[in-house]
Amino acid sequence: MEHQEAYRAAGGGKHRANKPTEARVMNRRLLVAAAVLFAASVANSESKAQSGPFAVLAGSWSGGGTVTLDDGSTERIRCRAKYAPAGPAMEMSLTCASDAYKFNLSANVRAEGNAITGSWTEASRNISGVISGRGGGANFEVVAQTAGFNASIGLHTSGSKQTVTMRADSQFRGANISMSR
Question: What is the DSSP string of 90-110?
Fold first, then answer.
């Protein structure tokens, strides 16, 4: 008992293990600093992974609009798009359908400066071709081509809203689509 009283007196009435030492405080600060540095490096690497000319498009979008058919009639359509950018390249898909009309467009594109090039397929009509155009950031203007078919495609994004316009010289006349995330 005498030993415990002397021990408590030396520690100011408290057990030393409960008293924060300078070394513990320093270790705690280093641990917090390491955690902050790790979190910052992860956040920075994620933002780098999403950088590039197509980064603003990344993710899934949905919405609707109208399609104008060969005979001039229009139909309301519902659409889903997925964009998977990876640096200067991107894989994308756009599926739209109405009661009587459907298209399923997929593409792989690459940007070199403002120039966009790539390939596309439309699964429901079993056609494919090349894409070329210009763009960057939130605005792209491209032309999808194959034998006997040309379509101009505009893609404009602002925050969580996106518009897609298509004008074609055959198959269908065009589409106007508005989507959001």
Answer: EEEEEEEE-SS-EEEEEEEEE
Per-residue pLDDT tens for 63-84?
A: 999 998 888 889 999 999 999 9
Q: Do 156 and 166 form a contact (C-beta atoms < 8 A)?
A: no
Candidates 151, 130, 129, 149; CA nearest to 141 is 151
Global pTM exceeds 0.85: no
Contact between 80 and 62 under an 8 Å Cβ cutoff? The reply is yes
Alpha-carbon gap, residue 163 to 178, rounded angstroms: 5
Q: Of all helices (H) and strands (E), which one includes residue 67?
A: strand 59-69
Alpha carbon distance 110, 91 (integer Å): 9
Q: Report the alpha-carbon distance of residue 125 to residue 145 in Å, rounded.
A: 14
Cα(85)–Cα(49) distance, rounded to whole angstroms? 9
